[in-house]
Design a protein that fits this description.
The protein is built from 7 helices and 11 strands. It is α/β, with parallel strands linked by helices. Strand 2 and strand 3 form a beta hairpin.
């Protein structure tokens, strides 16, 4: 595993290297506003399989994704509800993962048994800049073995994965002790699937005028 510290090597150098690795079919671990994440291209089936094996994760459990722009949703989503537009316009970028009805020809590693896909635009500068630089959706599954606690530091990442990751970007310790909030939007209603950084009050305050 190659380790690059942002403090030592510089932000742009680490960003460019991480993007290069992911675009070349490698697994990269990088910091987000919640925990460290493992990133591969959304459309690289071999790399997605490798990532699944690395985590020891059931193949039925799909990986969540990050994107750098809402325009990338067209690569993933079959239809966007008006409420989806309101929520994402008003709250993204944020630690808020939205579950959409998946489009066609997506890997089962990123699309669950209900034909949905989970996506967010991250608020963390490195994660967001990485997604923007790559220009296509990237996995952002937490850097831990399946069933274990997410990694908040590079040391935890190395303990979980002494091998198997191609590049680890050391961005220090992640501040949050909560995961991203996960929601689905159906029939004009918000359903919170997982409580996280973005609280229910913030969610409903952002869309209260639209729902009414």
């Amino acid at each position: 595993m190659e380790v690059r510290s942002v403090d030592k090597y510089g932000y742009e150098s680490c960003l460019g290297l991480a993007a290069k690795y992911i675009l070349n079919g490698k697994i990269v671990c990088f910091p987000t506003e919640t925990f460290y994440a493992l990133g591969v291209r959304y459309d690289d089936e071999n790399c997605l399989k490798r990532l699944s094996d690395l985590k020891g994760r059931p193949e039925s459990k799909a990986f969540s994704l990050i994107i750098g722009s809402k325009s990338e949703l067209s690569l993933l989503v079959s239809d966007i509800d008006p409420l989806d537009e309101v929520v994402t316009d008003r709250l993204w970028p944020a630690a808020l993962t939205v579950v959409f009805k998946a489009g066609e020809n997506l890997s089962s590693f990123i699309m669950d048994e209900n034909n949905t896909v989970a996506v967010r635009i991250p608020a963390h500068s490195f994660a967001l800049d990485l997604a923007m630089k790559i220009g296509t959706p990237v996995t952002a599954t937490s850097a831990n073995r399946s069933g274990m606690q997410p990694s908040r530091s590079p040391d935890q990442v190395v303990k979980y994965f002494p091998c198997g990751i191609d590049l680890l970007i050391d961005g220090g310790v992640c501040d949050s002790e909560k995961p991203s909030t996960i929601i689905s939007l159906e029939n004009g209603n918000i359903k919170i699937l997982r409580e996280g950084v973005v609280g229910s009050a913030e969610l409903y305050n952002a869309v209260n005028d639209y729902i009414k």
